[in-house]
Protein backbone atom coordinates (compact mmCIF):
# COMPACT_ATOMS: atom_id res chain seq x y z
CA UNK A 1 0.00 0.00 0.00
CA UNK A 2 1.46 3.35 -1.01
CA UNK A 3 1.66 6.45 1.19
CA UNK A 4 -0.65 8.29 -1.17
CA UNK A 5 -3.55 6.07 -0.15
CA UNK A 6 -3.20 6.79 3.58
CA UNK A 7 -6.69 7.24 5.05
CA UNK A 8 -7.47 10.54 6.77
CA UNK A 9 -8.21 8.71 10.01
CA UNK A 10 -4.67 7.33 10.15
CA UNK A 11 -3.24 10.83 9.63
CA UNK A 12 -5.53 12.10 12.40
CA UNK A 13 -4.34 9.27 14.67
CA UNK A 14 -0.70 10.23 13.95
CA UNK A 15 -1.33 13.91 14.71
CA UNK A 16 -3.11 13.01 17.96
CA UNK A 17 -0.12 10.78 18.85
CA UNK A 18 2.29 13.70 18.35
CA UNK A 19 0.10 16.01 20.44
CA UNK A 20 -0.16 13.47 23.28
CA UNK A 21 3.56 12.73 23.07
CA UNK A 22 4.43 16.42 23.39
CA UNK A 23 1.90 16.77 26.16
CA UNK A 24 3.44 13.80 27.96
CA UNK A 25 6.97 15.26 27.65
CA UNK A 26 5.71 18.57 29.02
CA UNK A 27 4.05 16.63 31.84
CA UNK A 28 7.43 15.05 32.62
CA UNK A 29 8.90 18.48 33.36
CA UNK A 30 5.97 19.31 35.65
CA UNK A 31 6.34 15.91 37.31
CA UNK A 32 10.07 16.45 37.91
CA UNK A 33 9.39 19.91 39.40
CA UNK A 34 6.55 18.48 41.52
CA UNK A 35 8.70 15.72 42.99
CA UNK A 36 11.67 18.08 43.53
CA UNK A 37 9.57 20.34 45.75
CA UNK A 38 7.07 17.87 47.23
CA UNK A 39 9.05 17.47 50.47
CA UNK A 40 9.16 21.22 51.03
CA UNK A 41 5.42 21.91 50.74
CA UNK A 42 3.99 22.92 54.14
CA UNK A 43 0.71 21.11 54.81
CA UNK A 44 -0.26 22.88 58.07
CA UNK A 45 -2.91 25.22 56.68
CA UNK A 46 -4.30 22.87 54.04
CA UNK A 47 -7.71 21.23 53.89
CA UNK A 48 -7.83 17.58 54.96
CA UNK A 49 -8.16 16.17 51.43
CA UNK A 50 -5.31 18.29 50.05
CA UNK A 51 -3.11 17.43 53.02
CA UNK A 52 -3.74 13.69 52.53
CA UNK A 53 -2.89 14.01 48.83
CA UNK A 54 0.42 15.81 49.43
CA UNK A 55 1.36 13.44 52.25
CA UNK A 56 0.63 10.41 50.05
CA UNK A 57 3.14 11.69 47.48
CA UNK A 58 5.65 12.65 50.20
CA UNK A 59 5.49 9.14 51.64
CA UNK A 60 5.57 7.40 48.25
CA UNK A 61 9.36 7.65 47.95
CA UNK A 62 11.84 7.56 45.09
CA UNK A 63 10.88 4.17 43.52
CA UNK A 64 7.33 5.39 42.78
CA UNK A 65 8.71 8.61 41.29
CA UNK A 66 11.13 6.64 39.09
CA UNK A 67 8.29 4.30 38.02
CA UNK A 68 5.99 7.18 37.02
CA UNK A 69 8.84 9.01 35.29
CA UNK A 70 10.00 5.93 33.34
CA UNK A 71 6.44 5.08 32.32
CA UNK A 72 5.85 8.62 31.06
CA UNK A 73 9.07 8.56 29.01
CA UNK A 74 8.25 5.13 27.54
CA UNK A 75 4.67 6.03 26.54
CA UNK A 76 5.82 9.38 25.16
CA UNK A 77 8.49 7.75 22.97
CA UNK A 78 6.10 4.99 21.87
CA UNK A 79 3.49 7.60 20.89
CA UNK A 80 6.06 9.56 18.88
CA UNK A 81 7.52 6.51 17.12
CA UNK A 82 4.13 4.94 16.34
CA UNK A 83 2.91 8.33 15.04
CA UNK A 84 5.77 8.33 12.53
CA UNK A 85 4.89 4.71 11.74
CA UNK A 86 1.26 5.65 11.01
CA UNK A 87 2.36 8.40 8.63
CA UNK A 88 4.73 6.05 6.79
CA UNK A 89 2.17 3.22 7.07
CA UNK A 90 4.81 0.89 8.54
CA UNK A 91 3.80 -2.49 9.89
CA UNK A 92 6.37 -2.59 12.72
CA UNK A 93 6.75 1.11 13.58
CA UNK A 94 3.05 1.79 13.17
CA UNK A 95 0.95 -1.22 14.03
CA UNK A 96 3.33 -3.08 16.35
CA UNK A 97 4.61 -0.06 18.32
CA UNK A 98 1.09 1.41 18.41
CA UNK A 99 -0.23 -1.84 19.88
CA UNK A 100 2.60 -1.95 22.43
CA UNK A 101 1.79 1.64 23.48
CA UNK A 102 -1.90 0.79 23.85
CA UNK A 103 -1.25 -2.35 25.92
CA UNK A 104 1.29 -0.60 28.20
CA UNK A 105 -1.02 2.36 28.65
CA UNK A 106 -4.04 0.19 29.49
CA UNK A 107 -1.97 -1.97 31.85
CA UNK A 108 -0.49 1.05 33.65
CA UNK A 109 -3.98 2.56 34.13
CA UNK A 110 -5.31 -0.69 35.58
CA UNK A 111 -2.23 -1.18 37.80
CA UNK A 112 -2.40 2.44 39.08
CA UNK A 113 -6.10 2.06 39.85
CA UNK A 114 -5.46 -1.19 41.74
CA UNK A 115 -2.23 -0.44 43.59
CA UNK A 116 -2.03 3.25 44.36
CA UNK A 117 -4.01 5.00 47.09
CA UNK A 118 -6.90 7.21 46.00
CA UNK A 119 -4.97 10.31 47.12
CA UNK A 120 -2.32 9.58 44.44
CA UNK A 121 -4.86 9.23 41.67
CA UNK A 122 -5.40 5.53 42.29
CA UNK A 123 -8.74 3.70 42.61
CA UNK A 124 -10.99 3.11 39.63
CA UNK A 125 -13.03 6.18 38.72
CA UNK A 126 -14.32 8.07 35.68
CA UNK A 127 -10.92 9.76 35.26
CA UNK A 128 -9.38 6.29 34.81
CA UNK A 129 -11.93 5.63 32.06
CA UNK A 130 -11.08 8.93 30.34
CA UNK A 131 -7.43 7.89 30.43
CA UNK A 132 -8.34 4.54 28.85
CA UNK A 133 -10.25 6.05 25.89
CA UNK A 134 -7.28 6.76 23.62
CA UNK A 135 -5.33 3.51 24.15
CA UNK A 136 -8.50 1.42 23.77
CA UNK A 137 -9.53 3.27 20.57
CA UNK A 138 -5.95 2.90 19.25
CA UNK A 139 -5.94 -0.83 20.01
CA UNK A 140 -9.30 -1.38 18.29
CA UNK A 141 -8.55 0.74 15.21
CA UNK A 142 -5.05 -0.63 14.59
CA UNK A 143 -6.41 -4.18 14.58
CA UNK A 144 -9.60 -3.57 12.62
CA UNK A 145 -10.10 -0.36 10.59
CA UNK A 146 -6.45 0.39 9.77
CA UNK A 147 -5.16 -3.20 9.84
CA UNK A 148 -4.64 -3.36 6.08
CA UNK A 149 -3.19 0.16 5.82
CA UNK A 150 -0.10 -0.53 7.93
CA UNK A 151 1.70 -3.04 5.73
CA UNK A 152 4.93 -1.35 4.51
CA UNK B 1 -34.92 21.95 -11.50
CA UNK B 2 -35.65 18.25 -11.60
CA UNK B 3 -35.50 16.77 -8.09
CA UNK B 4 -34.91 13.01 -8.41
CA UNK B 5 -36.77 10.62 -6.10
CA UNK B 6 -34.37 8.91 -3.70
CA UNK B 7 -33.94 5.12 -3.90
CA UNK B 8 -34.22 3.33 -0.54
CA UNK B 9 -31.68 0.61 -1.43
CA UNK B 10 -29.10 3.17 -2.54
CA UNK B 11 -29.66 5.31 0.56
CA UNK B 12 -29.29 2.25 2.80
CA UNK B 13 -26.08 1.22 1.06
CA UNK B 14 -24.57 4.73 1.13
CA UNK B 15 -25.58 5.38 4.77
CA UNK B 16 -24.12 2.08 6.03
CA UNK B 17 -20.91 2.64 4.09
CA UNK B 18 -20.70 6.26 5.27
CA UNK B 19 -21.18 5.33 8.95
CA UNK B 20 -18.43 2.69 8.65
CA UNK B 21 -16.19 5.04 6.65
CA UNK B 22 -16.52 7.84 9.23
CA UNK B 23 -13.64 6.58 11.37
CA UNK B 24 -11.38 5.93 8.36
CA UNK B 25 -11.97 9.43 7.03
CA UNK B 26 -10.74 11.10 10.21
CA UNK B 27 -13.74 13.24 11.08
CA UNK B 28 -15.47 10.27 12.72
CA UNK B 29 -12.33 9.42 14.68
CA UNK B 30 -11.90 13.00 15.93
CA UNK B 31 -15.62 13.17 16.85
CA UNK B 32 -15.45 9.80 18.62
CA UNK B 33 -12.53 10.93 20.78
CA UNK B 34 -13.89 14.43 21.49
CA UNK B 35 -17.41 13.17 22.25
CA UNK B 36 -16.17 10.37 24.53
CA UNK B 37 -13.80 12.67 26.40
CA UNK B 38 -16.45 15.41 26.68
CA UNK B 39 -19.20 13.02 27.83
CA UNK B 40 -17.06 11.27 30.41
CA UNK B 41 -15.48 14.54 31.56
CA UNK B 42 -18.93 16.00 32.26
CA UNK B 43 -19.77 12.84 34.19
CA UNK B 44 -16.44 13.08 36.03
CA UNK B 45 -17.07 16.68 37.12
CA UNK B 46 -20.55 15.85 38.41
CA UNK B 47 -19.88 12.41 39.91
CA UNK B 48 -16.56 13.13 41.69
CA UNK B 49 -18.04 15.43 44.41
CA UNK B 50 -20.68 12.76 45.08
CA UNK B 51 -18.00 10.09 45.37
CA UNK B 52 -16.07 12.31 47.79
CA UNK B 53 -19.23 12.74 49.84
CA UNK B 54 -19.76 8.97 49.87
CA UNK B 55 -16.13 8.39 50.94
CA UNK B 56 -16.46 11.01 53.70
CA UNK B 57 -19.70 9.47 54.91
CA UNK B 58 -18.20 5.98 54.98
CA UNK B 59 -15.13 7.29 56.84
CA UNK B 60 -17.05 9.24 59.46
CA UNK B 61 -20.29 7.27 59.84
CA UNK B 62 -18.99 3.81 58.97
CA UNK B 63 -21.49 3.29 56.13
CA UNK B 64 -23.02 5.01 53.14
CA UNK B 65 -26.58 6.31 53.41
CA UNK B 66 -27.98 6.62 49.84
CA UNK B 67 -30.94 8.71 51.07
CA UNK B 68 -28.64 11.42 52.44
CA UNK B 69 -26.52 11.38 49.29
CA UNK B 70 -29.61 11.67 47.07
CA UNK B 71 -30.95 14.58 49.17
CA UNK B 72 -27.63 16.40 48.99
CA UNK B 73 -27.47 15.97 45.20
CA UNK B 74 -31.04 17.28 44.89
CA UNK B 75 -30.21 20.24 47.14
CA UNK B 76 -27.11 21.20 45.16
CA UNK B 77 -28.68 20.42 41.78
CA UNK B 78 -31.85 22.45 42.41
CA UNK B 79 -30.52 25.97 41.61
CA UNK B 80 -28.48 24.71 38.66
CA UNK B 81 -31.46 22.87 37.19
CA UNK B 82 -33.74 25.87 37.66
CA UNK B 83 -31.22 28.06 35.86
CA UNK B 84 -30.72 25.59 32.99
CA UNK B 85 -34.50 25.23 32.55
CA UNK B 86 -34.83 29.03 32.52
CA UNK B 87 -36.98 29.14 35.66
CA UNK B 88 -34.63 31.44 37.58
CA UNK B 89 -32.07 34.05 36.58
CA UNK B 90 -28.43 33.83 37.60
CA UNK B 91 -29.01 36.79 39.94
CA UNK B 92 -31.83 34.99 41.77
CA UNK B 93 -29.69 31.86 42.03
CA UNK B 94 -26.80 33.86 43.51
CA UNK B 95 -29.10 35.56 46.04
CA UNK B 96 -30.52 32.18 47.03
CA UNK B 97 -27.02 30.71 47.40
CA UNK B 98 -25.86 33.66 49.55
CA UNK B 99 -28.90 33.37 51.82
CA UNK B 100 -28.32 29.65 52.13
CA UNK B 101 -24.62 30.17 52.92
CA UNK B 102 -25.59 32.62 55.69
CA UNK B 103 -28.08 30.14 57.12
CA UNK B 104 -25.46 27.38 57.10
CA UNK B 105 -22.91 29.61 58.84
CA UNK B 106 -25.41 30.37 61.58
CA UNK B 107 -25.98 26.67 62.02
CA UNK B 108 -22.97 25.72 64.16
CA UNK B 109 -23.33 21.92 63.80
CA UNK B 110 -21.87 20.15 60.80
CA UNK B 111 -25.06 18.78 59.36
CA UNK B 112 -23.72 17.91 55.94
CA UNK B 113 -23.61 14.23 56.80
CA UNK B 114 -27.12 13.97 58.15
CA UNK B 115 -30.45 14.06 56.35
CA UNK B 116 -31.18 17.62 55.22
CA UNK B 117 -34.65 18.60 54.12
CA UNK B 118 -34.80 20.77 51.02
CA UNK B 119 -35.07 24.29 52.39
CA UNK B 120 -36.62 25.75 49.25
CA UNK B 121 -38.63 22.69 48.36
CA UNK B 122 -41.83 24.71 48.22
CA UNK B 123 -40.74 26.83 45.26
CA UNK B 124 -39.42 23.87 43.30
CA UNK B 125 -41.07 23.74 39.90
CA UNK B 126 -42.74 20.41 38.89
CA UNK B 127 -40.25 20.04 36.04
CA UNK B 128 -37.21 20.54 38.33
CA UNK B 129 -38.87 18.27 40.91
CA UNK B 130 -39.30 15.58 38.23
CA UNK B 131 -35.65 15.78 37.17
CA UNK B 132 -34.25 15.92 40.70
CA UNK B 133 -36.63 13.80 42.76
CA UNK B 134 -38.62 11.50 40.49
CA UNK B 135 -35.60 10.56 38.34
CA UNK B 136 -31.95 9.91 39.27
CA UNK B 137 -30.83 13.53 39.83
CA UNK B 138 -27.17 12.91 39.01
CA UNK B 139 -28.06 11.39 35.65
CA UNK B 140 -30.52 14.27 35.00
CA UNK B 141 -27.72 16.78 35.62
CA UNK B 142 -25.41 14.90 33.25
CA UNK B 143 -28.13 14.81 30.56
CA UNK B 144 -28.82 18.55 30.92
CA UNK B 145 -25.13 19.38 30.42
CA UNK B 146 -24.84 16.93 27.51
CA UNK B 147 -27.97 18.38 25.86
CA UNK B 148 -26.32 21.78 26.05
CA UNK B 149 -22.81 20.70 25.07
CA UNK B 150 -23.19 18.01 22.41
CA UNK B 151 -24.48 20.38 19.66
CA UNK B 152 -21.07 22.11 19.80
CA UNK B 153 -19.31 18.78 19.31
CA UNK B 154 -21.49 17.30 16.54
CA UNK B 155 -20.05 19.56 13.83
CA UNK B 156 -16.71 17.70 14.13
CA UNK B 157 -18.51 14.67 12.70
CA UNK B 158 -21.01 16.24 10.32
CA UNK B 159 -19.08 19.11 8.70
CA UNK B 160 -17.71 17.14 5.75
CA UNK B 161 -20.69 15.21 4.42
CA UNK B 162 -20.28 16.39 0.82
CA UNK B 163 -18.05 19.51 0.81
CA UNK B 164 -14.78 17.54 0.55
CA UNK B 165 -16.01 15.58 -2.44
CA UNK B 166 -17.40 18.74 -4.04
CA UNK B 167 -13.94 20.32 -3.71
CA UNK B 168 -12.13 17.30 -5.18
CA UNK B 169 -14.87 16.69 -7.81
CA UNK B 170 -14.93 13.07 -6.55
CA UNK B 171 -18.73 13.03 -6.62
CA UNK B 172 -18.69 13.02 -10.43
CA UNK B 173 -17.54 9.40 -10.39
CA UNK B 174 -20.20 8.43 -7.86
CA UNK B 175 -22.92 10.16 -9.88
CA UNK B 176 -22.37 7.68 -12.72
CA UNK B 177 -23.94 5.02 -10.47
CA UNK B 178 -26.48 6.84 -8.31
CA UNK B 179 -28.49 10.06 -7.94
CA UNK B 180 -27.54 13.18 -5.98
CA UNK B 181 -30.51 12.67 -3.65
CA UNK B 182 -29.25 9.20 -2.64
CA UNK B 183 -25.77 10.54 -1.87
CA UNK B 184 -27.10 13.50 0.11
CA UNK B 185 -29.68 11.65 2.21
CA UNK B 186 -27.53 8.52 2.51
CA UNK B 187 -24.60 10.44 3.97
CA UNK B 188 -26.92 12.35 6.31
CA UNK B 189 -28.37 9.07 7.59
CA UNK B 190 -24.88 7.54 7.92
CA UNK B 191 -23.80 10.51 10.05
CA UNK B 192 -26.93 10.13 12.22
CA UNK B 193 -26.21 6.39 12.68
CA UNK B 194 -22.61 7.09 13.74
CA UNK B 195 -23.64 9.89 16.10
CA UNK B 196 -26.31 7.67 17.68
CA UNK B 197 -23.79 4.85 18.19
CA UNK B 198 -21.33 7.21 19.92
CA UNK B 199 -24.14 8.61 22.12
CA UNK B 200 -25.06 5.05 23.10
CA UNK B 201 -21.44 4.29 24.08
CA UNK B 202 -21.26 7.44 26.25
CA UNK B 203 -24.59 6.80 28.02
CA UNK B 204 -23.94 3.09 28.58
CA UNK B 205 -20.49 3.85 30.05
CA UNK B 206 -21.83 6.53 32.43
CA UNK B 207 -24.87 4.52 33.53
CA UNK B 208 -22.82 1.35 33.99
CA UNK B 209 -20.36 3.31 36.14
CA UNK B 210 -23.14 4.93 38.21
CA UNK B 211 -24.85 1.57 38.72
CA UNK B 212 -21.75 -0.44 39.61
CA UNK B 213 -19.61 2.13 41.44
CA UNK B 214 -21.78 4.67 43.24
CA UNK B 215 -24.88 2.52 43.89
CA UNK B 216 -27.05 5.41 45.05
CA UNK B 217 -29.88 4.74 42.58
CA UNK B 218 -31.77 1.51 41.92
CA UNK B 219 -30.79 -0.15 38.62
CA UNK B 220 -34.28 -0.08 37.00
CA UNK B 221 -34.60 3.69 37.64
CA UNK B 222 -31.15 4.28 36.14
CA UNK B 223 -31.83 2.07 33.12
CA UNK B 224 -35.23 3.63 32.36
CA UNK B 225 -33.94 7.19 32.62
CA UNK B 226 -30.84 6.27 30.61
CA UNK B 227 -33.03 5.08 27.71
CA UNK B 228 -34.98 8.37 27.83
CA UNK B 229 -31.75 10.40 27.94
CA UNK B 230 -30.27 8.39 25.07
CA UNK B 231 -33.34 8.97 22.90
CA UNK B 232 -33.38 12.69 23.79
CA UNK B 233 -29.71 13.17 22.90
CA UNK B 234 -29.93 11.08 19.73
CA UNK B 235 -32.99 12.96 18.44
CA UNK B 236 -31.47 16.32 19.39
CA UNK B 237 -28.41 15.62 17.25
CA UNK B 238 -30.56 15.15 14.09
CA UNK B 239 -31.41 18.86 13.42
CA UNK B 240 -27.82 19.92 14.15
CA UNK B 241 -26.53 17.29 11.72
CA UNK B 242 -29.06 18.62 9.19
CA UNK B 243 -27.68 22.15 9.67
CA UNK B 244 -24.21 20.76 8.93
CA UNK B 245 -25.64 18.98 5.84
CA UNK B 246 -27.01 22.29 4.59
CA UNK B 247 -23.68 24.08 5.16
CA UNK B 248 -21.69 21.18 3.70
CA UNK B 249 -23.82 21.21 0.55
CA UNK B 250 -23.47 24.99 0.19
CA UNK B 251 -19.68 25.37 0.32
CA UNK B 252 -16.88 23.49 -1.43
CA UNK B 253 -14.27 23.54 1.33
CA UNK B 254 -14.43 21.15 4.32
CA UNK B 255 -12.52 23.60 6.52
CA UNK B 256 -14.88 26.46 5.68
CA UNK B 257 -17.79 24.09 6.28
CA UNK B 258 -16.47 23.26 9.77
CA UNK B 259 -15.92 26.92 10.65
CA UNK B 260 -19.38 27.90 9.37
CA UNK B 261 -21.04 25.03 11.24
CA UNK B 262 -19.33 26.12 14.46
CA UNK B 263 -20.18 29.79 13.89
CA UNK B 264 -23.84 29.07 13.08
CA UNK B 265 -24.48 26.62 15.94
CA UNK B 266 -22.67 28.66 18.61
CA UNK B 267 -23.46 32.03 17.02
CA UNK B 268 -27.24 31.62 17.31
CA UNK B 269 -26.89 30.94 21.03
CA UNK B 270 -24.38 33.72 21.70
CA UNK B 271 -26.30 36.30 19.63
CA UNK B 272 -29.56 35.45 21.38
CA UNK B 273 -28.03 35.70 24.86
CA UNK B 274 -25.98 38.85 24.23
CA UNK B 275 -28.63 40.39 22.00
CA UNK B 276 -31.38 39.96 24.59
CA UNK B 277 -29.37 42.10 27.01
CA UNK B 278 -29.72 45.06 24.66
CA UNK B 279 -33.04 44.17 23.05
CA UNK B 280 -35.35 41.66 24.76
CA UNK B 281 -36.98 40.13 21.64
CA UNK B 282 -33.50 39.02 20.44
CA UNK B 283 -33.91 36.03 22.75
CA UNK B 284 -36.31 34.52 20.17
CA UNK B 285 -33.28 34.02 17.94
CA UNK B 286 -32.73 30.89 20.04
CA UNK B 287 -35.61 29.29 18.14
CA UNK B 288 -33.73 29.48 14.84
CA UNK B 289 -32.13 26.26 16.08
CA UNK B 290 -33.44 23.88 18.79
CA UNK B 291 -31.57 25.84 21.51
CA UNK B 292 -34.77 27.48 22.79
CA UNK B 293 -36.65 24.33 23.67
CA UNK B 294 -34.25 21.39 23.54
CA UNK B 295 -34.39 20.85 27.32
CA UNK B 296 -38.10 20.03 26.81
CA UNK B 297 -36.87 16.64 25.59
CA UNK B 298 -36.50 15.87 29.32
CA UNK B 299 -39.94 17.25 30.26
CA UNK B 300 -42.11 15.20 32.67
CA UNK B 301 -45.19 15.31 30.40
CA UNK B 302 -44.91 12.66 27.65
CA UNK B 303 -46.88 14.87 25.22
CA UNK B 304 -44.42 17.71 25.81
CA UNK B 305 -41.48 15.35 25.25
CA UNK B 306 -42.99 13.94 22.09
CA UNK B 307 -43.74 17.45 20.83
CA UNK B 308 -40.09 18.43 21.35
CA UNK B 309 -38.94 15.29 19.51
CA UNK B 310 -41.29 16.00 16.60
CA UNK B 311 -40.07 19.61 16.50
CA UNK B 312 -36.50 18.27 16.25
CA UNK B 313 -37.49 16.16 13.27
CA UNK B 314 -39.35 19.11 11.70
CA UNK B 315 -36.31 21.39 12.05
CA UNK B 316 -34.17 18.60 10.57
CA UNK B 317 -36.56 18.19 7.63
CA UNK B 318 -36.48 21.93 6.86
CA UNK B 319 -32.66 22.20 7.01
CA UNK B 320 -32.28 18.97 5.09
CA UNK B 321 -34.58 20.04 2.28
CA UNK B 322 -32.85 23.44 2.02
CA UNK B 323 -29.51 21.63 1.82
CA UNK B 324 -30.82 19.21 -0.77
CA UNK B 325 -32.12 22.12 -2.85
CA UNK B 326 -28.61 23.66 -2.84
CA UNK B 327 -26.92 20.31 -3.50
CA UNK B 328 -29.21 19.40 -6.41
CA UNK B 329 -28.64 22.73 -8.17
CA UNK B 330 -24.94 23.27 -7.59
CA UNK B 331 -22.02 22.49 -9.91
CA UNK B 332 -20.18 19.38 -8.77
What can you see in these coordinates?
The complex is a heterodimer of chains A (152) and B (332). Chain A has one domain. The model of chain A has no long low-confidence stretch (mean pLDDT 84). Chain A starts with 7 loop residues before the first helix and ends in a 9-residue tail after the last helix. Chain A has 5 helices and no strands. By secondary structure, chain A is an all-alpha fold. In chain A, helix 1 runs antiparallel to helix 3 (62-88). With 332 residues, chain B is an all-alpha fold. Chain B has one domain (8-329). In chain B, helix 6 (137-158) packs across helix 11 (254-278). The longest helix of chain B has 35 residues, at 27-61. Residues 111-119 of chain B have low confidence and may be disordered. The chains are: A mainly alpha (152), B mainly alpha (332). Chain A binds chain B through residues 7-9, 11-13, 16, 49, 118, 124-127, 129-130, 133-134, 137, 141, 145-146, and chain B through 23-30, 32-33, 36-37, 40-41, 43-44, 47-48, 51-52, 55, 205, 209, 213.
What descriptors fit this protein?
heterodimer, A: mainly alpha, B: 332 residues, mainly alpha, 12 helices
> How would you spell out the order of helices and strands of chain B?
HHHHHHHHHHHH
Taking the sheet with the most strands of chain B, its summary is: none
Structural class of chain A: mainly alpha
Count the E strands of chain B.
Answer: 0
Q: How would you spell out the order of helices and strands of chain A?
A: HHHHH
Helix content of chain B: over 70%
Strand content of chain B: under 5%
Largest interface: A-B, 21 and 24 residues
Radius of gyration over C-alpha positions of chain B, nearest whole angstrom: 23 Å
Amino acid sequence: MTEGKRPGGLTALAVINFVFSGWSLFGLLSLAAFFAFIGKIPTDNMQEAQKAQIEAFQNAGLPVFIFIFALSIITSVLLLVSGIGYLKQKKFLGRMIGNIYAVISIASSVISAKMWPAEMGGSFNIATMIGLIYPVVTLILLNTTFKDDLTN
Amino acid sequence: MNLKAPTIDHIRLISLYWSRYAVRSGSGLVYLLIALVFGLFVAHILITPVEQLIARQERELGQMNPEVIRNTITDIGQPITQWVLGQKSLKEIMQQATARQRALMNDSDDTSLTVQPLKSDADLDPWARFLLEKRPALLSAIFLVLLFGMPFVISFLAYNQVSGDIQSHGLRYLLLRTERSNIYFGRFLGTVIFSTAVTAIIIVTIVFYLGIKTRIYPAPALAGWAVHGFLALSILMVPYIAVCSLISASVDSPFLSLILAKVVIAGVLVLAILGSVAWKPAKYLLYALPWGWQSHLLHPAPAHCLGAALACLLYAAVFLMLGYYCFERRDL
